[in-house]
């Protein structure tokens, strides 16, 4: 069918499709080649990885980089810190956003429009504008240099609340009313009806928040000074940037640095295939509601 459409199309459309295809291929190569280069360097030996070439296949194949970064450089500690912050923060974020979204679907909540307006206003304020006040508040609460400050950072967001509200609006409110007439409480209606019927929405918010927290860099950079509390992104920054800028007594070879980058993105690649189906459905449903 695609070939028939191509044959029926005029020369103008054919040239446009060809240029469009060429542009997409070039765009794809700009992303694939650096990624293959990182993988190949991480699987090369230390000496081979120091050559200033772009390689698409490993030279002198070796797992030396992964072994050094995991054992000698103790990358496991920032990895565990990142997992702790990401999993705990994401679970709390999804729960609180769902609870707030559930409140906003009730038709007789007083001040509902005012609350939605306030939530929209919070989405217009850039995060950098409130970073210094947040630092002062966290310092007064003695949260600086703790993992708790990273879990509490961005614990709720207007985007997630409104997204969950839109998903809940797709569920007929009569179902909740019938359950309440039969004696069900609010928490039972919320957990057994709304949460179960909004699986795609939960997967969408979970994926967004998981990726945001795993890649979180600014908050750890500002709130964390203790190297024992470093997250993975901050540890990679210290290893790649700081060791290159200073004359340290040891040298971190390129294969070790690239192995760290692969370890940092591996959880995201591993989780995406399992939530992709819900993610695509969630994006479409969330975009089509009011």
TrEMBL record:
Entry-linked CDD domains: TM_PBP2
InterPro entries: MetI-like, MetI-like_sf
Phylogenetic lineage: Bacteria, Bacillati, Bacillota, Bacilli, Bacillales
Protein family according to the UniProt entry: Belongs to the binding-protein-dependent transport system permease family.
Source organism superkingdom: Bacteria
One Gene Ontology term, aspect cellular component: plasma membrane
Transmembrane segments: 21-43, 83-105, 117-137, 143-164, 258-275
UniProt entry keywords in alphabetical sequence: Cell membrane, Membrane, Transmembrane, Transmembrane helix, Transport
Topology within the bilayer: Multi-pass membrane protein
GO biological process, one term: transmembrane transport
ABC transmembrane type-1 domain location: 79-275
UniProt protein name: ABC transporter permease
Entries under Pfam families matching the protein: BPD_transp_1
Gene3D superfamilies associated with the record: MetI-like
Compartments (UniProt record): Cell membrane
């Amino acid at each position: 069918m695609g070939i028939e459409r191509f044959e029926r199309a005029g020369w103008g459309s054919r040239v446009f499709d060809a240029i469009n295809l060429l542009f997409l291929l070039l765009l794809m190569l700009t992303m694939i080649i650096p990624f293959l280069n990182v993988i190949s360097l991480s699987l090369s030996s230390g000496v081979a990885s120091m050559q200033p070439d772009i390689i698409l296949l490993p030279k002198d194949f070796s797992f030396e980089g992964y072994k050094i970064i995991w054992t000698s450089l103790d990358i496991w500690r920032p990895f565990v810190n990142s997992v702790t912050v990401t999993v705990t923060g994401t679970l709390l974020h999804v729960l609180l956003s769902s609870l707030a979204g559930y409140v906003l679907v009730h038709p007789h909540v007083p001040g509902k429009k005012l609350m939605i307006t306030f939530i929209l206003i919070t989405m217009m304020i850039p995060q950098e504008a409130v970073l210094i006040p947040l630092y002062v508040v966290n310092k007064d609460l003695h949260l600086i240099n703790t993992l708790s400050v990273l879990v509490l950072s961005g614990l709720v967001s207007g985007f997630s609340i409104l997204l969950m509200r839109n998903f809940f609006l797709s569920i007929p409110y009569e179902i909740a009313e019938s359950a309440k007439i039969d004696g069900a409480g609010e928490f039972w209606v919320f957990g057994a009806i709304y949460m179960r019927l909004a699986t795609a929405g939960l997967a969408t918010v979970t994926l967004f928040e998981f990726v945001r927290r795993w890649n979180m860099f600014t908050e750890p950079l500002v709130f964390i000074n203790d190297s024992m509390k470093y997250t993975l992104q901050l540890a990679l920054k210290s290893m790649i940037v700081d060791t290159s800028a200073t004359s340290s007594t040891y040298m971190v070879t390129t294969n070790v640095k690239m192995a760290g980058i692969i370890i940092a993105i591996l959880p995201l690649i591993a989780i995406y295939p399992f939530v992709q189906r819900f993610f695509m459905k969630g994006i479409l449903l969330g975009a089509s509601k009011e």
